[in-house]
Specification:
single chain; 79 residues; alpha/beta; Trna Endonuclease, Chain: A, domain 1; 3 helices; 4 strands; 51% helix; 19% strand
Length: 79
C-alpha cells in the first residue's frame, strides 16, 4: 500500500504525513500483519523536504519506509 504526499503549507506538512502514515500502519497491522507500508513521495518533495535533518530524524524514529518516484518513471525504495 502506498500513501501519496502532496505539497502542503510547510507548517501542516510534517504532522499530516506522519499522522496519516502512522494511522495507516496501525490499521494495516491489524488486518495484514505481514504487510509493509511504504510512503510514496515525488523526487521533488523528497529533495526539498525529506532530506532536512529534523525530517530524517522523524523518518528514522517512526521507521517510515519511503519510495521516491519521478513522474514517468518506475518507483524505487529508498529504505
Amino acid at each position: 500500500m502506498l500513501i501519496k504526499v502532496d505539497p502542503l503549507p510547510h507548517t501542516r506538512r510534517i504532522s499530516r504525513w506522519a499522522d496519516e502514515y502512522i494511522l495507516y500502519r496501525l490499521y494495516l497491522t491489524q488486518i495484514f500483519p505481514e504487510a509493509v507500508l511504504y510512503m510514496a513521495v515525488s523526487d521533488a518533495i523528497y529533495q526539498s523536504f525529506f532530506l532536512k535533518s529534523a525530517i530524517q530524524f522523524a523518518v528514522t524514529e517512526v521507521d517510515i519506509k519511503i519510495i521516491v518516484f519521478d513522474v514517468g518513471r518506475s518507483m524505487a525504495p529508498i529504505n
